[in-house]
Amino acid sequence: MSRSSTRPNSAYPSRSGTPSLRDVVHGVMKIFHHEKESEAHQIFRQQVGHQPKPALGLPQTINPDEETVPGIEHPGSTGVIYCSDRAIANGFNYANSHEWANLGQGAPEVGPIPNAPPRPQNIPLPVDSLEYAPTTGVKALREAVANLYNDNYRKGKASQYTYENVCIVPGGRAGLSRVAAVIGDVYCSYQVPDYTAYDQVLSAFKRLVPVPTALDPKNKYRLDIEQTKKDILTQGLAVVIASNPRNPTGQVIAGKELKELVSLSRENTTIILDEFYSWYIYPDSEKDIGKSVSSAEYVEDVNSDSVVIIDGLTKNWRLPGWRVCWVIGPKNLITALSQSGSFLDGGANHPMQLAALPLLEPERVKLEKTSLQRHFKAKRDHVLKRLHALHLDVDVPPQATFYIWLNLEKLPPPLNNGLTFFEELLKEQTIVIPGIFFDINPAHRRNLFNSPCHHYVRLSFGPPIEDLDKGIDAIGRVVAAARLGGTKKMGHSYKKSLEGSSGINI
After folding, report:
1. Residues whose CB falls within 8 Å of the CB of residue 319, separated by 6 or more in sequence, listed in order
2. How far is CA 180 from the centre of its chain?
3. Measured by CB atoms within 10 angstroms of the end CB, which terminus of the chain is less buried, N or C?
4. d(CA 180, CA 274)
């Protein structure tokens, strides 16, 4: 038997195991071979921060054309930022935003919805609020957050949250950055697909060594808790980070599975859960309307279970512009976050923290939850019905969040990948988010065509219903044109800027 016939399967042509220099060069050649054939992919790669980074063990080099300020390196943009920039290149601006359908926005509609409490109209400005707030936040708001979680998730439990378990932060990403800044040199588990900002966090905070887990659509993107337990033992994972409910797939870890995930925090592993969509749950039974999900329900001791919860007013209260959020965890974590906040962001807006206090009253929150769930469930069902009419059935329909993870593989090429689909919709004044932004890939080395998220886009049903219909109408026009043989006009002639076309030759 020849030597080649006994060699184990490997992703690297020269040998199994760690890539050699030849393998790295071979991989880069493959990327060029695939990506240079797509104008949409070239535009993506030309954005500063989106070039592949050197493989481990190779010298770190800086592109002199990209990085012109000494010592500065672009981390890469999140999906919403990149897509907004591309939309602006195609004529979008915030003055004419009503002419566009933004199905890419990661925010819910902020206006009145049926049977919800009235929207805040005025912000009081007492003189004391003009001072800096503490980096951990106003004590009264910290107490209100702790009391809300105790009321919603910890009734009858001996261990209760207090203000000392809460840190107020100026936005979810600020909270995530504060947490990342206080984590030591550890292996950090994350999943693909997941929230786009994790890519930048894992790139910027070098002490976090990223360890990916690919979620399987055939298993409805379920996080395998038993496999996670094995990975903790065999790979030495010290941190697990995840969104729950899940962005972008719209799935949720709940009940027994969430309880088992939380139990890992009692086995020398820190569990960081981004719970910003905890109210966006769509139960089948009317009696379950108004219920929400949080890991706080399964924490045994609030000061010894290493569970970190990040949430805030942004999604559930539909107040993204307020930038008032919080991190909940053991007291010792909160003191560390106070220190990292002192040099990262300086703390959340003082008047807005005070204005948030009445919004956290438990009775008001119950009303907010029920009205939100009924309204957004109706929008979800409406969009799914319209997509079905276009023969764009969703493989794994969302049970939570306000996102739809749409598989494009059955569409004619080149419309069957997220980046090209996105660029074609820009011509129709509609924005979606290409799936590759949810492929958490800190080194940016993976061939985009090989990404498990390449054939997907994320659609948001966060906007008002009239905007959703405008966007679905645009999708219908693009899909109909492709199915009628109009794909020759697709995949090229994209604008790189307002001044003209991309200038990219295919």
Report:
1. 110, 120, 313, 359
2. 16
3. N
4. 13
User: Cα(385)–Cα(394) distance, rounded to whole angstroms?
Assistant: 10
Question: Residue 6: its pLDDT value, please?
Answer: 41
pTM passes above 0.85 = yes
Question: With contact defined as beta carbons under 8 Å apart, do 116 and 368 qualify?
Answer: yes
**What H or E segment, with its residue span, contains residue 242?**
strand 237-243
Q: What residues have CB less than 8 Å from 341, skipping those under 6 apart? A: 135, 136, 167, 169, 174, 178, 347
Other Cβ atoms less than 10 A from the Cβ of 50: the count is 17
Q: How far, in Å, CA of 166 to CA of 143, rounded?
A: 8
User: From the CB of residue 30, how many other CB atoms can be counted at a distance below 10 Å?
Assistant: 13
274-317: pLDDT as tens digits: 999 999 999 999 999 999 999 999 999 999 999 999 999 999 99
Q: How far apart are CA 89 and CA 499, in angstroms?
A: 8
The SS3 assignment for 385 reads helix
Partnered with residue 188 across adjacent β-strands are: 210, 239
Eight-class DSSP state of 281: B
Q: How many CB atoms lie within 10 A of CB 142?
A: 24
What span, in angstroms and rounded, lies between the C-alpha atoms of 352 and 253? 31
pLDDT digits (tens, 9 = 90+) for 188-227: 999 999 998 888 888 889 899 999 999 999 999 999 999 9
Nearest-Å Rg of the Cα atoms of the chain is: 23
Q: Tell me the residue type at 247.
A: N
Show the tokens assigned to 221.
């993107």
